[in-house]
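Board notes, transcribed. Complex of a protein with UFG.
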Amino acid sequence: MRVLVTGGAGYVGSHMVRALVRAKHDVLVVDDLSAGHADALPPSGIEFLQAQVSDAPRVLAAMRDHGTEAILHFASRIQVGESVVDPRKYYTGNLAAAVSLFESALDAGVKLAVLSSTAAVYGDPVRVPIDEEHPTAPINPYGETKLAIERMLGSYGRAYGLRWAALRYFNAAGADVQSGLDERHDPETHLVPIVLDAALGRRDHVTIFGDDYDTPDGTCIRDYVHVVDLCDAHLAALEHLQRGGESGAINLGTGAGHSVAEVVDVARRVTGRTIRVEKGPRRAGDPPRLVASVERAARVLGWRARRATLEQIVRDAWTVRSA
Ligand code: UFG
């Protein structure tokens, strides 16, 4: 299929580009390299347009030249904290950009779309594991803008026949050992790379944001899902939509939760290194427990995370990061 990948030079997007190329899809990447890295793109075998997703004339022309049939939309700002202090970056950079992208998509006759969405659309969960019928009540502009994009896709689906899937990631982590792609955010806010940097001596210590939550060890519980499994889910979603399958939102997680303290322990075991921790205050907006119900993904996409142990996620991330 002819697939446009926005944010193809970013963390999940760059893994996806490799997976699409391996599956013999014809890939066009649009990335402005504001957060992504040019060296995360394969040196050949894809088309690349360095442009903002909101640059409608160039994006529309590129889609038409490419004959784009499906869009995988990864390009996004992703920092919850930043979205609270500077929400315009999210309303402009995520929501307005998506409005522009899908305007171009409709004009170019694109039929299928897969959105990188997030567990942040649920806000503070009222039940765990979280299924897709759980109320959506985001508590920050990051989650608000992702939910607004999901709703736009819903309306465009009903009105214009766009078929879409919003894949709500829980905590993406790990790396593809085969292609050696690493997780590189600036600043890095995600737990796994921070813990590994402490193991490598690139950071002095890891601060644990709160150890007085109502969880067995007092630290927050998250559902870490391997980035390569996320890519498999996107491929399954593309096939599902191509077969004429139903549009909608689907959680991507493993269904198992792990605490911050557990992540540190596993990383100590996997790396064999010392990892110093310090206890810090809670981080604003962190729910104590986020774990996905993964039944819909299994039923609709026939997908389950295969690299589901925390051990494997941390090991693969370490293999790439310590290389
Ligand atoms: N944490 C620490 N210390 C750190 C970094 C993180 O204790 O230095 C803790 C956090 O408090 C949290 C857990 O580790 O409990 C995971 O934090 P991350 O920042 O790695 O991930 P989040 O769970 O905050 O974020 C993820 C996605 C977001 C999404 C959010 C939904 O990365 O895109 O879940 O709440 F919005």
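The mean pLDDT is 97. Residues 88-107 form the longest helix (20 residues).
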